[in-house]
Amino acid sequence: METHEEAEFCFPELLNTSCLKPVVSQTNAVVYHILLFTFSPLTVALNLMVIISVAHFRQLHTPTNLLLLSLAVSDLFVGLVMMPAEILLKMTCWFLGDSMCSLYVFLGWLSVSASVGDMVLISVDRYVAICDPLHYTHKVTVKRVKVCICLCWFCSGCFCFGILNDNLTHPGKYICQGECVISISHVAEVVDLVSTFILPISAIIALYMSVFVVAVSQARAMRSHITSITAQRSGKAVAKKSELKAARSLGVLVVVFLICFCPYYCVYLAADTSVTVTVYFYASFLMYINSCLNPLIYSLFYPWFRKSVKQIFTMQILQPDSQNINIL
């Protein structure tokens, strides 16, 4: 049983304003250390591979890969800042002051918001590529994608500043010394829920359902065409493979996002009832793990990613004119 008598003050000299040190069970402490030393560096490493690959090799400077680069940057902040801070806050006090707490909270919200925005942009990119392939190169250009990425980060920053305005302008207003938490109104909670979960996931599902329908339709058209030319067996094999590929892509992209984000928002909505701090932590960390899975989902399945990782680890990217090699 965890009791306040077992805990010590974070700042013993400030008895009236100091928080109590977190009391962590041995089991939770082991789990926290495993999460800290496994997922945090793995998230940073995977996203750094994506960033270096896309930024270094000129052949990868395509609209889709620029979106992956933006996603990797936001996920990098999650692994570099959010994961370690979230775990350490459960094991010790916050000693960096109120201003650093406000900065940490803002960066955390910005990273998650930008990551969700990037996922929506990637969904739009793939929707246009599959549903309107003839006009894709004209509609989706590198310049337009750069503008969209900048707008995504700018809007995410404005959104986070608006939600956290009171916490940013009055750091430490709602907390004792030694904690780093935020306090937002119920209206702000609803706006955050709608803006960072309901609307994005609805858009992603709608876009990928359209992609799935078009992919299946194209597969059936291809089967009919092949049947009229070659053996029927061959056509069925090609169509079946296309349908399975479309279904797999839809499942991986949408289901993983739901698995990672739904528990957090379910706990978020029930925070005023019987949800414990430990449950809230694990739900939050599951959402952060999505940043570790994103490079695997969006990049690891690309052949160029494996080739670029090999180039990085063998230090061949340091060779002259390495940015111009054929990486595709």
Task: Name a few traits of the molecule.
globular, 328 residues, 10 helices, Rhopdopsin 7-helix transmembrane proteins, mainly alpha
Give a structural overview:
- The chain is mainly α and 328 residues long.
- The chain has a single domain (4-316), classed as Rhodopsin 7-helix transmembrane proteins (Rhopdopsin 7-helix transmembrane proteins).
- It is 73% helix and 0% strand.
- The chain is built from 10 helices and no strands.
- It has helices at residues 26-56, 63-91, 97-131, 136-139, 142-163, 165-169, 186-227, 232-269, 277-300, 303-313.
- The longest helix has 42 residues, at 186-227.
- Mean pLDDT is 78; it is low at 1-5 and 231-240.
From the 3D structure, determine the CATH topology. Rhopdopsin 7-helix transmembrane proteins
CATH architecture: Up-down Bundle
- Tally of individual helices: 10
Beta-strand level of the residues, as a percent range? under 5%
Largest sheet: none
| Helix-strand string | HHHHHHHHHH
Question: What is the SS-derived class?
Answer: mainly alpha
Question: What portion of residues is helical?
Answer: over 70%
| Overall number of structural domains | 1
What's the pLDDT, averaged over the residues?
78
Gyration radius over CA? 23 Å
N/C terminus separation: 57 Å
Uncertain runs are 1-5, 231-240
Overall strand count: 0
The first-level CATH class is given as Mainly Alpha
What best-fitting shape do the alpha-carbon axes yield? globular
